[in-house]
Write a structure and sequence with these properties.
Elements lengths: L1 E2 L2 H8 L8 H14 L3 E3 L1 H14 L4 H13 L3 E3 L2 H12 L4 H8 L6 E3 L4 H10 L4 E3 L2
Parallel strand pairs: 1-2, 2-3, 4-5
Helix pairs in contact: 1-2, 1-3, 3-4, 4-5, 5-6
Length: 137
C-alpha cells in the first residue's frame, strides 16, 4: 500500500492547463491512483484536499463533495475513517464548512463539541441536529 499527498489528489482531479507542471504530473497521479494495488488517503490529506478544491481551484460545494465521494468509491483506495468522511460530506452539502463537518463527524462518540469563536458553525450544526451537539461555552 502507498499513501498519497494532497497534490497527488489535486493532479488526479483537476486538469490545470495554467500550471506547466500539470502536464508532467497529471499522468503520474492518474497512474498512482488507478493502477496502484492499494492507496491510502488519510483524513488530514482529505481535509487539505477539500480546502484546495474550494480555496485554490474555486470548486463549488457540490463539485468538491462529488470528488470526495468518487475518491471513496475507487476500488483500490482506502480513505481513513470513511464513514465519518461520508457524514462530513453530507453535512457539508447541508451548509457546514467541510473542515467543521469533518471535525464533528469524527467526534461522534462524544456528547458535545465545543468551539469558542465559531458561532455560525454552532448555529448551523444545531439547526441540522448534528451529533454531538456543537456549542459555544
Amino acid at each position: 500500500m502507498i499513501a498519497v499527498d494532497t497534490n497527488i489528489l489535486a493532479r488526479f482531479y483537476v486538469d490545470d492547463a495554467a500550471d506547466p507542471e500539470a502536464a508532467r504530473q497529471r499522468p503520474i497521479a492518474e497512474r498512482l491512483m488507478r493502477e496502484g494495488t492499494g492507496v491510502l488517503v488519510t483524513v488530514t490529506v482529505l481535509l487539505e484536499f477539500a480546502w484546495v478544491l474550494r480555496g485554490f481551484y474555486g470548486f463549488e460545494t457540490e463539485d468538491s463533495a462529488r470528488a470526495i465521494e468518487h475518491l471513496i468509491g475507487l476500488p483500490n483506495v482506502t480513505v481513513e475513517d470513511w464513514p465519518a468522511v461520508l457524514e462530513a460530506v453530507r453535512l457539508y452539502r447541508e451548509g457546514l464548512d467541510f473542515a467543521d463537518a469533518l471535525h464533528v463527524s469524527r467526534a461522534g462518540q462524544c456528547e458535545r463539541f465545543y468551539t469558542f469563536d465559531d458561532r455560525k458553525f454552532a448555529r448551523r450544526a444545531t439547526k441540522l441536529g448534528v451529533v454531538p451537539a456543537v456549542q459555544v461555552p
